[in-house]
C-alpha cells in the first residue's frame, strides 16, 4: 500500500444528518471507543518532522510550555525496548505536509486565529427573536462556551485553513459548535457521529470508512474534508448559504420540497419563510448567535481562549500496526489527548493498512519519530482473526489462546451469541499471527453474531378425535401459539380438525443428553419387561380364626 503523508486534507463529499447536542445539554461527553493489535518492529520507518525552532511556543493555549528543536526521549518509556539510536541521529527532513516547515515564531503565526475567522465572514446575517434567544442562552453559560472553545482550539486552524483554500465563508468553521460542541467523539440519538455529525449510511456513501477497527466519521481530517465538500455542493444547489445550512441539517430533499410548497402557495422561499422542524428552524440562529459572540465577545461577557494562527497538530505516517497506548507513550502525549486527535480508532490498535497517519500535537511530532525509530520492542499486541465457520466464543477463545471473558469484552460479544463465519475478531498477536493486518481486512472487517440456540427438530403430529387447538398444542410443547400458527400457516386462534396433521419444532437434544435419554429409556424398558415377566408370588393358605363374640349378659 502506498503511504502518502497527509498534513491538512481536502477531497470528496458527504451527507450528514442530526445534531448530537441539544440546546440545554452540555455535549462535552461523547462516546468513544478504541482497541488493540501488535508485532515486533522488523524495519525502521523513515520518519522525521520539520525542524522546530528552539524555545518556540507551539501550543494553541495560554500555557508557558516551550520545546527544544529535538526533544529528549519520553520520560517513563521502557528503555530496555529502545535501541542505541540517539536523538542526535535524527535528520530533520520534512516528510510531512506542508512541504515548507511552519515557523511558529513568524508574525503570521502569532496573529489571533479568532480575528482571522472574523476577517473571513461572508454569509448574510440573520436577525430576529430566535437569534436573540440563542445569544442569551450561550451568554448565560460562559463556562460552557469556554469549554467548547478550548476543545475547538485543537481543530479550528485546520478547518479555517481548508475553508480559505475553498474560498468559503470562515464562519462555517464555527458550525461544529452547533453540531457537536466540537467533540469529535459525539454521538447523537440518530447515530450521527463525529464533530460534523455524519449518520452511518451517508458516511458510507461519501467514503467515510466504518468497520470494527475505525470510523472515519470521527476522523478529524476526513470528516472535515467531507463536510466542506457537502456544504459547498449545497450552496451550489441553493445559491443561498442559509438554505444550504438548512439542507445540511434537514436534508436537501426536504428543503427542496419546502421551497416547492411555498412557491405553489405564492409565499417567499427564504430560510425564515419555510415551514420546517424546530431543530432546523433553530439551526441557523444558533450559528448566527455563536458568530455574533465570536465577533464581539466583550458585549456578551464571554472570554474566548487565545488561539494563535498556527497548527495545533501535524500528521505523522504510520508504517506498522501499533497499539494506541504505545503510540501515545512514544509521543509523550496523554492517552486521552491522543484519542481526541485520533478519535476514529474503534479498537486499542492502529492498523497501518487502514490508517496512513496519526495526528500529534505540533511539538510532539519529532519526539514520536525519535522514539519510534529507536524502539525495539513489540509495536502491536493484538491482531485480526477471521472465523472459519460459525463458532461459540468459548471455542474461538481456545483456538486463539485467550480467555472467553477477555474475548467477549474486547470484541463486545453479548451473552448467548455465536460468532458467525467470516467475522473478524480482535485477538492477541502470537507466534501464528505475526504479520500486520492486510489492507483488505483493515478496510472491510465486519463482525456478525447469531443467537446461540439449540437446533430444532421437526415433529409431525395428528390431531385427536376431538381436534387440537393451536393454543393447546403450544402449551403442550412449551412454545408460543404464534410460533405454532406460523409453522402451520394458520391463525393463533385456529383449531386443527380431527385426524389433520400439523407440525411443531422442539429443541434438538445435545448428543450427551440424547445418550442419557436412551440409557434411561432402555433401563425403564427393561424394568417394565422384568415386571411383566416376573411370576406372581404364591398365595399362602391362611386360616381365618373367628374371634369370639362376647354377648352382653342382661
From TrEMBL:
> What family does this belong to?
Belongs to the transglycosylase Slt family.
**Pfam families listed in its UniProt record:** LysM, SLT
Keywords on this record? Signal
Q: Which residues form the Transglycosylase SLT domain?
A: 164-264
Q: Signal: is it a keyword of this entry?
A: yes
Mind telling me what this protein is named?
Answer: Transglycosylase SLT domain-containing protein
PROSITE patterns on file:
PROKAR_LIPOPROTEIN (PS51257), TRANSGLYCOSYLASE (PS00922)
Gene3D superfamilies recorded: 1.10.530.10
**Signal sequence annotation:** 1-25
Q: Locate the LysM domain: which residues? A: 396-428, 465-491
Amino acid at each position: 500500500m502506498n503511504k502518502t503523508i497527509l498534513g491538512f486534507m481536502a477531497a470528496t463529499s458527504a451527507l450528514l444528518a442530526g445534531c448530537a447536542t441539544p440546546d440545554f445539554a452540555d455535549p462535552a461527553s461523547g462516546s468513544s471507543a478504541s482497541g488493540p493489535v501488535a508485532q515486533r518492529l522488523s524495519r525502521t520507518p523513515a520518519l522525521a518532522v520539520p525542524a522546530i525552532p528552539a524555545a518556540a511556543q507551539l501550543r494553541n493555549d495560554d500555557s508557558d510550555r516551550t520545546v527544544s528543536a529535538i526533544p529528549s526521549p519520553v520520560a517513563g518509556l521502557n528503555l530496555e525496548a529502545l535501541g542505541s539510536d540517539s536523538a542526535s541521529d535524527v535528520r530533520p527532513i520534512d516528510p510531512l505536509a506542508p512541504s515548507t516547515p511552519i515557523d511558529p515564531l513568524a508574525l503570521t503565526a502569532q496573529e489571533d486565529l479568532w480575528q482571522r475567522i472574523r476577517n473571513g465572514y461572508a454569509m448574510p446575517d440573520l436577525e430576529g427573536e430566535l437569534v436573540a434567544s440563542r445569544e442569551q442562552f450561550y451568554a448565560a453559560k460562559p463556562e460552557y462556551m469556554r469549554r467548547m472553545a478550548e476543545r475547538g482550539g485543537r481543530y479550528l486552524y485546520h478547518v479555517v485553513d481548508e475553508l480559505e483554500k475553498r474560498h468559503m465563508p470562515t464562519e462555517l468553521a464555527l458550525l461544529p459548535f452547533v453540531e457537536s460542541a466540537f467533540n469529535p467523539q459525539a454521538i447523537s440519538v440518530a447515530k450521527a457521529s463525529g464533530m460534523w455529525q455524519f449518520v452511518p449510511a451517508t458516511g458510507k456513501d461519501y467514503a467515510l470508512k466504518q468497520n470494527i477497527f475505525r470510523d472515519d466519521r470521527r476522523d478529524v481530517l476526513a470528516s472535515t474534508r467531507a463536510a466542506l465538500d457537502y456544504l459547498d455542493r449545497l450552496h451550489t444547489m441553493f445559491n443561498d448559504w442559509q438554505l444550504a445550512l438548512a439542507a445540511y441539517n434537514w436534508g436537501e430533499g426536504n428543503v427542496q420540497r419546502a421551497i416547492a410548497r411555498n412557491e405553489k402557495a405564492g409565499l417567499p422561499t427564504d430560510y425564515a419563510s419555510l415551514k420546517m422542524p424546530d431543530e432546523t428552524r433553530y439551526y441557523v440562529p444558533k450559528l448566527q448567535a455563536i458568530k455574533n459572540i465570536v465577533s464581539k465577545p466583550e458585549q456578551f461577557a464571554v472570554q474566548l481562549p487565545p488561539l494563535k494562527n498556527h497548527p495545533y497538530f501535524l500528521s505523522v505516517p504510520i508504517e506498522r500496526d501499533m497499539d494506541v497506548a504505545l503510540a501515545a507513550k512514544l509521543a509523550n502525549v496523554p492517552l486521552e489527548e491522543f484519542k481526541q486527535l485520533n478519535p476514529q480508532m474503534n479498537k486499542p490498535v492502529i492498523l497501518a493498512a487502514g490508517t496512513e497517519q496519526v495526528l500529534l500535537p505540533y511539538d510532539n511530532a519529532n519526539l514520536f519519530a525519535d522514539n519510534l525509530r529507536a524502539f525495539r520492542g513489540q509495536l502491536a499486541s493484538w491482531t485480526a482473526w477471521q472465523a472459519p465457520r460459525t463458532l461459540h466464543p468459548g471455542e474461538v477463545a481456545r483456538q486463539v489462546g485467550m480467555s472467553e471473558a477477555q474475548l467477549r469484552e474486547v470484541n463486545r460479544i453479548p451473552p448467548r451469541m455465536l460468532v458467525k463465519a467470516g467475522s473478524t475478531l480482535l485477538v492477541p498477536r502470537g507466534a501464528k499471527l505475526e504479520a500486520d493486518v492486510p489492507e483488505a481486512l483493515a478496510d472491510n472487517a465486519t463482525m456478525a453474531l447469531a443467537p446461540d440456540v439449540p437446533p430444532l427438530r421437526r415433529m409431525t403430529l395428528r390431531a385427536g378425535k376431538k381436534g387440537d387447538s393451536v393454543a393447546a398444542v403450544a402449551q403442550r410443547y412449551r412454545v408460543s401459539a404464534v410460533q405454532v400458527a406460523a409453522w402451520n400457516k394458520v391463525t393463533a386462534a385456529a383449531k386443527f380438525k380431527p385426524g389433520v396433521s400439523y407440525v411443531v419444532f422442539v429443541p434438538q437434544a445435545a448428543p450427551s443428553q440424547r445418550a442419557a435419554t436412551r440409557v434411561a429409556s432402555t433401563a425403564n424398558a427393561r424394568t417394565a419387561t422384568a415386571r411383566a415377566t416376573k411370576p406372581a408370588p404364591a398365595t399362602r393358605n391362611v386360616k381365618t380364626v373367628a374371634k369370639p363374640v362376647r354377648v352382653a349378659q342382661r
